[in-house]
Amino acid sequence: MHSGQHQVSANRELRFGSGGTGFALHDDSAQGGNGTAGRAGGMSNTDQLALAENEYGQKFRAAPGTADTVALATLDQYNPISVSQNREYAGLMYERGGAVGVTPGAPGQPCTSSGCSSQPFLMKSAVPSGARILAYWHTHGAASGGFTYDFFSEADVNLANYVGNIYGGSGGYVGTPAGNAYFIGANALNPTNYSANQLYPAIIRTQRFVGHVDVW
Predict the structure, then answer these.
(1) What's the rounded mean pLDDT across residues 43-68?
(2) Which CATH number fits domain 14-212: 3.40.140, 1.10.287, 2.50.20, 3.30.70?
């Protein structure tokens, strides 16, 4: 996931939580739902859906609260774009002044038969001065060849470890063409400790389900 070549300018960001912009995404889990990201209908005046547009004309939602909530809202918006274009999108999450923020996503090159790639750290310039990098997020393009890519790749795990070791961050998030979002913690798994046939079962056991995200 490291060969994306498109730079996204850093003149847009979203901030969440206390001290943020008040963007909100309805979540039916708060009303006893199944924990999936909710839709825009039925929101109160204090729970309005906010839309922002990045340089590529894509609209993405923002949700207040924890890093998981912010990541889920971001992946929920970018995943359908990623699937329809069959390319990964990636960005960074950060914390500043008690609020969790997220950068817009940088698009990777279109996926090929040999795989997909993206570079969340292309968006490092969009992280505000004084903010601490918490995690990275990315999508996995479209399902192909009977595979749904419903787990982190070895490169993804290595990047989660990098975020922890270099920035003291928590790890990484992924949205998949199967409609799922997952988190993997920094240094929760070291790929060099596993043989090829052991690695992906270990990743699947280690990654944590965060919620469902849109596909179309």
Answers:
(1) 44
(2) 3.40.140
